[in-house]
Design brief:
Chain lengths: ~240, ~625, ~500, ~120
């Protein structure tokens, strides 16, 4: 019964989707076909592609959009991840993960040594990714995720290791604070939140893009520590 | 003293009495009485003044206006008078009970709100004060707990229903005439083309009808009146339900005006005719239900509904005499119903809460003053000549007959017979017959309880003998509402209305009295005989109560009891039960299964898409 | 000059700072949300007079509106963010001592972020940014509902999360459809170009957004999460959820329908939906024995009324809706807060356990009564002024359709009166149980009495002097109604 | 057929969304429902990226080698999707935490049995 009703409802939703696609041209492609990239090529991000390189000196236009034009979204996004980490902690507060560490099988020497060897390399890759976020594909979120995977590896490979939650929390807070403060400096200096107030340098150089790399570093640290915190919370006792 | 000053005094008095009560109970009592008496005086000295002024500009875009005119003054003095008496009566009644502070606060608040209602110069402030009165009254009705809680809820639900209707109606007026100030509104409505819409009138009637317990909207009243504390029952029955009457008069004659009013409704059935007939029904049925009541306050409550019927009947006739009769009867009913409720309250107070007529009796020996006053009140209720009730009923009969409404007049007459019967039952079962042993040492009610009774009794007799005093005011009001003014002499009416001279009545009564006294002088003196002689045939009198009445009108009850149940109430109760069932059924849509909830979300989306493709949206 | 963006940035910074403060002093940390909200309240109030004249447009990253995300601090947005800050402040003060169990450190941060989300929703001028802040609001409320980690809380949080997540996905689909059609995300820019688009795509994207935002706004068939979540959360959280969070959802719907789409064809449908929501909410509330569940259902009812008023599409109607948002926010926050300590005192959420509360907790009971009376719309409390405005607006439209709907809706008011007054009777007129375990821990501390008392005072004051808020209502209504002005303010020229 | 070929990417994303919705509507295991929600998220994210797609366009990243030699796809949806992914991850994390707690309390993940709160 439930299945039939669901299918019926979904069928209508599907018809709705079909209805959406029919008719007027859709998406950037549709707009190009119908020559409807209206209003000085502002729509469909045309303007970011054409002027973004000059405005922020940031080779990766997506990064430029994420951190400058739509940087405010990113602030919210970082906040949401922060909330998820905190909420996870709040929900699981006082809970002890399944088996106690004593009962768990000790990791073999090869495994734990291998993990320890790999860990700095992973860190390095992560840091590389978020430092070069404005030049190449990647950025704070991706780099942070890679860093967190390093911590995950430690958690899985060397079961006895506990992460220092105070340090993680501090990194989380301070990097978040750094993001907001960087944005607020823009407000103080140029009257606009998130203003790219630093000299933007030369395109394709490591030191280019003004505050964009700085923010991405903050985000990288924040995402890394948050995801690690989540891993930590899911695997151990939550305090 | 302006209307504003009066209201400030009233509301500040309510608040201050609460504040004072936190420090000293005695201080609060004194203060409450001082405020009440002060209000009576303040209103009394404003007699004859007419004023209208804005007291709160731009409340939600509307000016709130207070106004003092003859009609407002008339109701204001009635309200403050009865309010004052009930406060005095409360002194002993609530002393030592819990939540005294709350009691005084709510009582004074109700009184203040009622003053606000009658002094309002616009319908918005009318409505605001109306609502304050409603919820404050709810708090007081619930005061005694137990069954009072259900009574309170019933009252307040109906009252909210009524005020919703009223809100719709008055905002309809605002939307169409862009003002709610009564004088402007009246002018605009009268000068506007076209009639007055029936549904607005009906919505007002629903609001007012519920408050003044017009059948079939009366069902809250018997419960609320009987379960409220007695001094507040006096307020409820004496003046609170009269606010409904005031509303009717205000809207029908003050706002809509006689000319338009006569055309409201279908050509073959006018609104005011329906009101008349509802009034007649409201006289007949409750009067006979009152006969069957064993609870003294319940009996009085039903009697109140019956008396409201007279007033509504008289309002609906839409004649000058009828309106005068309605206004005078409003005043009278306020006084004698307050008296009767207070008298019952005094008995209740002394006997420790007994109101069951089957368990009382013979109290005349212990509480003679209470009895005498109750007797006057009862006579006034019946409408015996030389009481004020006679004059007002006379006016109503007179207009019914001259306007050619024989059936309505008959209904009114039959209602009076019923009144005689239930007043007799009430007085007899409480005061006459044998005194139960446990009350043998009962003391008379304290003076603070007797004083209001005596004042009421005095007013009844005074206005009965000199009806010209209130009628001079009433006559003027009738004139301002677009009728021919009613002119009255001090003791009755001139020939143009119909000869009524209370002096003649006095003389007749004096003559009859003289004859009786004379016959008593001639006849052999009655010899007091011990009760034992007549009832126990010389044997020792049994210890229990043997001269008493239970189920006073039992034969009548057996005959009519099946029919005289409160059908309407039962209908409402079953409807409420059904509604509860429906509510519980609606609740089931929240099944607790989150997948179903997700389905609701998708269903709404689907509906929107479907409705769009179908072209509905 | 103070920029409205501080309303989001500063509390956010304080929220990030809170864990650091917690390292230094645990007791200082508890005051952080209150400090953040106090700041917000002061700033919002100081900006309000200026915004009443013309909306303040805030750019980010220095680019003019359609290019970057911008905030539009119009009269409506600032009015609502002041309300958010006010309720947030009072509830934060309440929370200082109220929250005793669980991960206190996380509570403070999550609480602040929830309010940041609500503030962001009402201030932003960008559709996707609206979605982001909406998610900030939603995700922090999922977490806070389950904050205590008890069975009911977790279950409610889980159900809330599932429905909320699906709702936000629907919103995102709607945004995607819209972006694919017009290629921009600024609400004003969309509004200016949406008129030239034909076909059903627009309507269907609107349908997705209504169904999505409607979940948070607790519109009728989408509100199943609300009674669970609001009753299982800690009372301070219930207060903000009921007082603030659901209003944000409704604001989003109104903003999308009025400003972005200018879709008047859907308004009658929304009005019907509003009345149905009202009736269903009140009917369900009537039979509840659990006081918090009752309050939650009553919130649904009130949301229905607000939605109905919003759908009137007249200036008075929207003023009334905004007024009701304010008055319901104050009253419902008050009721949940007052209930919180009563539940601590008796250890039960049954209405019957409230018997005799009037004696045991006189101030809480009195305030509860004030709140209940205000919700019912009794004068002289603020609820009356708002309901009166709405009824006036309906009759002002003169349309039989709306008047009939209103007449049906008023039945809901009667039901509401019935159950609230029953509670008042329980509070005052039912004798307290004889053997009463006198729990000292249940005694309300000053941090609880002050916010509750202040809310009651506000309810009475605004009720007596509706002009305090009334001045801002007209511009707020125009803010929604006048699309052309909105577009012009944001886009320049 | 023409419709399918020119809109095949959209059809794919919507199919994902519908499958996800179907799972959420029909499956009674909490974890499966969470997976369903994730499927919806993924579908939506793909859809967003698809709206910015230009036939033959490259990623919007400049490099010294090929400066503006080709047309680039719309960068905005990519930025949006970045945000949306993070939001999806956050919701997922929270949902799993709640699922853990639900299992702790009730010993089951069957949604038909999780009806402690109703009516």
């Amino acid at each position: 019964m439930r299945k039939q009703i669901s299918l019926l409802l979904l069928l209508i939703v599907a018809a709705g989707f079909a209805l959406c696609l029919a008719g007027a041209p859709f998406g950037a492609e549709g707009a190009r076909e119908s020559r409807r990239l209206v209003k000085d090529n502002v729509n469909y991000g045309r303007r970011y592609v054409s002027k973004g390189l000059d405005e922020n000196r940031c080779a990766n236009i997506v990064t430029s959009v994420v951190l400058n034009y739509r940087g405010f979204d990113t602030l919210g996004e970082v906040t949401i991840l922060f909330i998820a980490a905190l909420g996870l902690g709040a929900v699981l507060y006082g809970r002890r993960a399944g088996a106690s560490p004593d009962e768990a099988q000790r990791p073999s020497l090869i495994l734990s040594t291998g993990c320890r060897l790999l860990f700095p390399l992973i860190m390095l890759v992560g840091i590389y990714i978020f430092i070069h976020g404005h030049l190449s594909p990647g950025g704070g979120f991706q780099g942070g995720a890679v860093i967190a995977s390093g911590f995950l590896l430690i958690c899985l490979g060397c079961r006895k290791k506990k992460l220092n939650s105070v340090a993680l929390g501090a990194a989380e807070s301070l990097s978040g604070l750094a993001f907001v403060l960087l944005a607020l400096i823009g407000l103080a200096v140029g009257g606009s939140f998130l203003l790219n107030f630093l000299p933007t340098g030369k395109v394709y150089a490591l030191f280019s893009g003004g505050i964009i790399p700085l923010i991405y570093i903050a985000i990288g640290v924040k995402v890394g520590s948050e995801l690690s915190g989540i891993i930590d919370n899911l695997s151990g006792e939550v305090r | 003293m302006s209307a504003q000053g009066i209201l400030i005094t009233a509301f500040a008095g309510a608040g201050l009495s609460y504040a004072l009560g936190l420090t000293s109970a005695r201080l609060r009592e004194v203060f409450a009485i001082v405020v009440s008496v002060l209000l009576v005086c303040l209103i009394a000295i404003t007699h004859g003044q007419g004023a209208e002024h804005v007291y709160y500009p731009d409340f939600l875009g509307l000016d709130l206006v207070l106004r003092m005119d003859a009609l407002a003054w008339f109701f204001a003095i009635t309200v403050s008078m009865v309010g004052c008496l009930s406060v005095i009566f409360s002194l002993h009644y609530v002393r030592g009970k819990e939540k005294e502070n709350f009691y005084y606060f709510a009582l004074l608040l109700v009184n203040a709100a009622m003053l606000g209602i009658v002094l309002s110069g616009d319908l918005l402030s009318f409505f605001i004060f109306w609502e304050i009165m409603s919820w404050a009254a709810f708090l007081l009705i619930s005061y005694k707990r137990g069954r009072a809680l259900d009574a309170g809820l019933k009252y307040v639900i109906m009252s909210i229903l009524g005020s919703c209707a009223m809100l719709l109606a008055l905002l309809y007026l605002y939307a169409n005439y862009n003002t709610l100030v009564i004088s402007d509104l009246a002018q605009q409505i009268r000068s506007a083309a076209g009639g007055f819409p029936l549904w607005v009138m009906l919505a007002f009637a629903l609001g007012f009808g519920i408050k003044c317990a017009l059948i079939p909207l009366h069902t809250w009243l018997p419960d609320a009146h009987s379960e409220a504390p007695s001094p507040f029952s006096a307020v409820l029955s004496g003046i609170l339900i009269k606010m409904g009457i005031y509303g009717f008069i205000l809207v029908m004659y003050g706002v809509v005006g006689l000319k338009l009013l006569l055309e409201v409704g279908a050509p073959w059935l006018h609104f005011h005719t329906v009101l008349c007939w509802l009034g007649a029904i409201t006289i007949l049925i409750p009067t006979f239900i009152a006969l069957l009541q064993d609870d003294a306050k319940r009996l009085l409550a039903w009697s109140s509904i019956g008396q409201i019927g007279y007033i509504m009947l008289a309002i609906g006739v839409a004649t000058s005499l009828g309106l005068a009769g309605a206004l005078f009867h409003t005043l009278n009913h306020a006084v004698f119903k307050a008296l009767l409720f207070l008298a019952v309250g005094a008995v209740e107070y002394k006997t420790g809460g007994v109101r069951d007529l089957n368990r009382l009796g013979g109290l005349i020996r212990r509480m003679p003053v209470t009895f005498a006053c109750a007797l006057i009140g009862g006579l006034g209720l019946i409408g015996v000549p030389l009481t004020s009730g006679f004059v007002s009923k006379w006016l109503i009969y007179k207009t019914l007959i001259t306007e050619g409404h024989p059936f309505l007049a008959l209904a009114a007459l039959v209602g009076t017979w019923g009144a005689i019967l239930y007043v007799y039952k009430l007085l007899h079962n409480m005061f006459l017959g044998q005194l139960p042993e446990k009350y043998a040492n009962l003391e008379a009610a304290p003076f603070s309880m007797q004083l209001p009774l005596m004042i009421c009794g005095f007013i009844i007799v005074l206005f009965g003998i000199l009806p010209g005093i209130p009628l001079s005011v009433i006559g003027g009001i009738v004139g301002t509402l677009g009728f021919e003014p009613v002119t009255a002499t001090l003791t009755g009416f001139g020939p143009q209305i119909g000869p009524l001279n209370t002096l003649n009545l006095c003389a007749a009564f004096a003559g009859v009295l003289l004859v009786i006294v004379a016959f008593r002088g001639i006849a052999a003196r009655p010899k007091p005989v011990s009760q034992d002689d007549s009832y126990a045939a010389g044997a020792a009198a049994p210890a229990g109560k043997y001269h008493h009445t239970v189920r006073f009108y039992d034969p009548l009850e057996r005959m009519t009891g099946g029919y005289l149940r409160d059908w309407v109430d039962q209908f409402y109760l079953s409807a409420a039960g059904k509604a509860k069932g429906v509510f519980n059924g609606v609740r089931r849509i929240y099944t607790g299964d989150v997948r179903t909830y997700v389905m609701y979300i998708v269903a709404l989306l689907t509906f929107l898409i479907f409705a769009h493709t179908a072209g509905w949206l | 000059m103070v920029s409205p963006i501080l309303l989001i940035a500063v509390p956010l910074a304080l929220a990030f700072l809170t864990p650091m403060v917690g390292l230094a002093s645990k007791s200082a940390r508890r005051y952080m949300p209150a400090i953040a909200m106090l700041f917000n309240f002061i700033v919002a109030m100081s900006l309000l007079p200026k915004a009443l004249e013309a909306p303040i447009i805030v750019r980010t990253a220095g680019w003019a509106p359609p290019l970057s995300i911008h905030l539009v601090a119009g009269p409506l947005g600032l009015l609502l963010s002041s309300l958010v800050a006010l309720i947030g402040l009072l509830v934060a003060i309440y929370g200082i001592d109220y929250i005793r169990e669980g991960a206190r450190a996380r509570y403070d941060v999550l609480y602040t972020l929830l309010l940041v989300g609500a503030t962001g929703v009402v201030l932003t001028g960008d559709l996707f940014n609206l979605f982001v802040f909406f998610e900030v609001l939603c995700i922090s409320s999922y977490a806070l509902v389950a904050y205590r980690g008890d069975s009911a809380g977790v279950e409610a949080g889980m159900k809330y999360l599932i429905q909320g997540a699906i709702g936000s996905s629907l919103v995102l689909i709607g945004i995607g459809l819209l972006y694919g059609t017009v290629g921009t995300l600024s609400m004003a820019d969309i509004a200016s170009s949406v008129g030239s688009v034909a076909g059903s795509r627009l309507f269907i994207s609107l349908a997705f957004m209504i169904a999505g935002f409607g979940v948070e706004a607790a519109i009728f068939p989408l509100n199943a999460w609300l009674p669970d979540a609001h009753s299982s959360a800690p009372s301070s959280i219930s207060a903000v959820l009921s007082g603030v969070a659901i209003k944000a959802g409704l604001y989003a719907i109104a903003r999308v329908v009025y400003t972005v789409y200018g879709a008047s064809s859907i308004l009658p449908f929304l009005a019907v939906l509003g009345v149905v929501t009202l009736l269903v909410g009140e009917m369900c509330a009537f039979a509840q024995e659990d006081i918090k569940r009752l309050l939650a259902f009553s919130s649904i009812g009130q949301m229905g009324l607000i939605l109905f008023a919003l759908a009137l599409s007249s200036a008075t109607g929207i003023s009334g809706a905004v007024f009701l948002i304010i008055s319901h926010g104050l009253a419902k926050a008050l009721l949940f807060l007052a209930t919180g300590y009563m539940i601590y005192r008796t250890g039960s959420r049954d209405i019957s356990s409230l018997a005799g509360m009037g004696k045991r907790m006189p101030i809480m009971s009195l305030c509860f009564t004030v709140g209940a009376f205000s919700l019912m719309g009794l004068p002289p409390f603020v609820g009356f002024a708002s309901k009166f405005t709405i009824v006036r607006a309906v009759l002002g439209t003169g349309s039989t359709f709306f008047i009939t709907l209103l007449a049906i809706g008023l039945i809901g008011t009667v039901i509401e009166g019935a159950y609230f007054l029953r509670i008042v009777q329980w509070l005052y007129f039912k004798p307290a149980p004889e053997a009463m375990p006198e729990q000292t821990e249940g005694r309300a501390p000053l941090t609880a009495l002050v916010p509750v008392g202040l809310l009651a005072v506000l309810i009475v004051t605004i009720g007596l002097l509706p002009g305090i808020v009334g001045r801002a209502l007209g511009p707020a209504a125009d803010d929604l109604l006048d699309r052309a002005a909105y577009i012009q303010h944001v886009m320049g020229d | 057929m023409n419709f399918l070929t020119s809109y095949i990417h959209y059809v794919g994303c919507f199919a994902l969304v519908l499958i996800g919705l179907y799972v959420a509507l029909v499956k009674s295991n909490l974890i499966k429902v969470i997976i369903g929600i994730n499927l919806i998220d993924t579908g939506v994210n793909l859809f967003l990226v698809a709206t910015g797609y230009l036939g033959g366009g490259t990623a919007p990243i400049f490099s010294k080698a090929a400066e503006q030699s080709q047309e680039m796809v719309d960068p905005v949806p990519q930025a949006l999707v970045l945000t949306a992914i993070v939001i999806g991850v956050s919701v997922l994390a929270l949902a799993l935490a709640l699922a853990i707690k639900v299992y702790d309390h009730n010993g089951t993940l069957d949604l038909r049995k999780l009806k402690g709160l109703k009516w």
